[in-house]
Amino acid sequence: TFDNWYSEQSLYDSGKVDKSINVFRQKKIIYEKDGAWWFKTAEFGDEKDRVVVRQNGQTTYFASDIAYHKDKYDRGFDHVIDVWGADHHGYIPRVRAALKADGNGDKEFDVILIQLVNLLREGELVSMSTRSGEFVTLSDVVKEVGSDAARFIFLTRHHESPLDFDLAVAKKKTSDNPVYYVQYVHARISSIAEKAGERNIKPGNWDTEAASPLTEPEEIRLIKSMAGFPEIIQSSAKLMEPHRITYFLMDLAASFHAYYNRHRVLTDDPVIAKARLCLVLAVQKIIRNGLALLGVSAPEKM
């Protein structure tokens, strides 16, 4: 969700690029050499000075990046997070230099470098060519596999790890497909809740007494797993690592499947049935909340 879709051209139209360059000129940290204008980034931690205005009078991308980041802090933000491709690693010091020169060096600035995605079909690499202009766009991927599968699978890897995205796997309705594996648990529990309603079995309040019949090892494992959800959310946000949520949901789904394959939820014993219904509804709620954070739907039926 974008609150503001930023046009680079708007920085030029508003005069913010020229203003940033002029401010640095007044500070005497931009100088002329060989017909171009150079920013003294080396004085602020970069390995060498960088051109901001070429010999032909055209500004560089770096010039607009200076204005762009200045605008971020001018609008009141105190923590800026940029998401770049991994090949832009060397660009970080020059942007940090610009922030220091502009007086924002003490503000928080993080760059997340995203590794490349290998697009596969049935394990075979999908051919793409720069020379012939043959590319598969993200919109093509979403159109083929759906936004749920695209989002979930892209978030199963740390941003520093390359991702093999198999289009065929993303469309499967089997446990090989991680998003299907997790969503199926939500749908399965919806079916259990529906059957419980037909049998007039209602979940009680979740308390010590209600949970006391839950003594099976698989039940204890589920409860312990769910107890870690708040910590996972906190660490995901703090470390900017949403893949922690996808792994948690896959582990929780695996624990549920192991439990469901060994134990009936709606047993003939009403006390146990009520307790187990509480348990699985709690699992469903956590899966629904986790999927919602990832922007993935939680279907009632599959």
Description of the structure:
Helix 5 crosses helix 6, helix 10 runs antiparallel to helix 12 and helix 12 runs antiparallel to helix 13. The protein is α/β, with parallel strands linked by helices and 302 residues long. The protein contains 13 helices and eight strands.
Instruction: Quickly count the helices.
Output: 13
Mean pLDDT: 92
Helical content, roughly?
40-55%
Which percent band covers the strand fraction? 5-15%
Number of strands: 8
Instruction: Indicate the low-confidence ranges by residue numbers.
Output: none
The SSE string, one letter per element, is HHEEEHEHEEEHHEHHHHHHH
Distance between the termini: 27 Å
Largest sheet: 3 strands, antiparallel
| Radius of gyration, in angstroms, nearest whole number | 26 Å
The secondary structure category is: alpha/beta
Biggest sheet: strands side by side, in what order?
1-2-3
> What is the 3D shape?
elongated
